[in-house]
Amino acid sequence: MKILLVEDVRSIASVMAARLGSYGHDVTIAENGAFAIELFKKVNPDLILMDIEMPVMNGFETATHIRSLEAKQQWAWTPIMFLTASDSPENLVTAIESGGDGYLVKTVPEPVLHAKMKAMARIAALRQRLAFANGRLQQQASHDGLTGLYNRPYMDMTVDAVWDEAVRLRQAFAVLMLDVDNFKRYNDQYGHQAGDDCLRKVATILGNTMAACNAEGLTQSAFAARYGGEEFAIVIPRSSSAAYEGVAAIILDDLRRSALPHEGNAEWGIVTLSVGGARLDAASGTVADVFRVADKNLYRAKETGRNRAELS
Ligand code: GH3
Ligand code: MG
Ligand code: MG
Ligand code: MG
Fold this sequence. Notes:
- It is built from 10 helices and 10 strands.
- α2 runs parallel beside α3, α7 crosses α8 and α8 crosses α9.
- 52% of the residues lie in helices and 18% in strands.
- The model has no long low-confidence stretch (mean pLDDT 96).
- It has 2 domains: 141 residues, Response regulator (Rossmann fold, 3-Layer(aba) Sandwich), CATH 3.40.50; 160 residues, Reverse transcriptase/Diguanylate cyclase domain (Alpha-Beta Plaits), CATH 3.30.70.270.
- α4 links the parallel β4 and β5.
- The chain has 312 residues and is α/β, with parallel strands linked by helices.
- It binds 3'-deoxy-guanosine-5'-triphosphate and magnesium ion (MG) (3 copies).
C-alpha cells in the first residue's frame, strides 16, 4: 500500500515508517496537517495514518479538509486511521465525526500493527478493483459498443444539460445530423461485417475531426455521438455561425479525403455523408425542435443529391 504517515514528532514518524516499510508498504511522511493535504493530492495514498495533536492543523481538522476535497469526486474515500496517545472513547467519537475511520494507539504492539495493515491492504486492493470496474462500467454506459463514440443515452443526457445552460444564458446552440449515403447498398455489396468496419472508420474520422476542432479553438466542448444505425449527431455548444458552417464543411471534406471505397455510392465511388444542421443564436423553445429542423435539413440534403450539407 501507499501509506501517508502524518506525524509531527520526527522520532515517532521514523520508527513507525520503518515498521510499515518492513511490512512492504511504501511510506510518505508529512510533518503536519498542511503538508499532509499537499502530499495527499500528490501521492494519492491507499491509507492515511495520522497523529491527532500537531501544530498548524491538527489531525481532526486535516481529516475534515481531506474529506471536503474528496467530496468533489464520486466514490473517493481514502481510509484515515488516527494515531493516538491514549485509547479514549472521546477520541474515537471525534475521529469518526471528523471523517476518520478508526484509530490506533501509538504503542500498538508490533503484531497488532502488522495484522491491521494486512486488513487495510485487503480493503485497498478491493477499492482498486472496484475503481477499475467502475471506470469500465462508466465507459460502457456512455459509449457505443460498435464505434466507441458517445452513445445515444449519453448524448441525450449531455444535450439536455448543454441546452438548459444555453437557454439560461441565452447562448448559441447548434446541432448537425449526419447520415451515411446509400449505406444499404454498402452492406449489400460488401457484407454486414464490412459495413460495421465502415461505420467504425466513419466514427473515428468524426471523433478525430471534432477533437481537432476543439483543440484548435474552432469549437468548445463540441462532440460527436452515434445517433443510431448509420446516423450520427454533432453537438456544438456556444457555436458561432462560422464555426457551425466550418464544422459541417470540414467533416464532409475529411471523409472525402479518407476515400473509403463504396462502389455503389452514385458517381463518387467512396463513402460520403449527408448533413442537416440547425443553429440558434440564442437558445429558446425546446431542443427537440432544433433536432427536428436539423432532421428536415438532412432530408433536404438527401433529396437534393446527397454528399452535401443543408444548414439553417
Ligand atoms: P440514404 O442515402 O438515403 O441514407 O440511404 P441508405 O441506404 O443509407 O438508407 P437506409 O435507411 O435505406 O439504410 C440504412 C442502412 O444502414 C440499413 C441498415 O442495415 C444499415 N445499418 C444500420 N445500422 C448498421 C450497423 O450497425 N451495421 C451495419 N453493417 N449496417 C447498419
Ligand atoms: Mg503530535
Ligand atoms: Mg439513415
Ligand atoms: Mg443512410
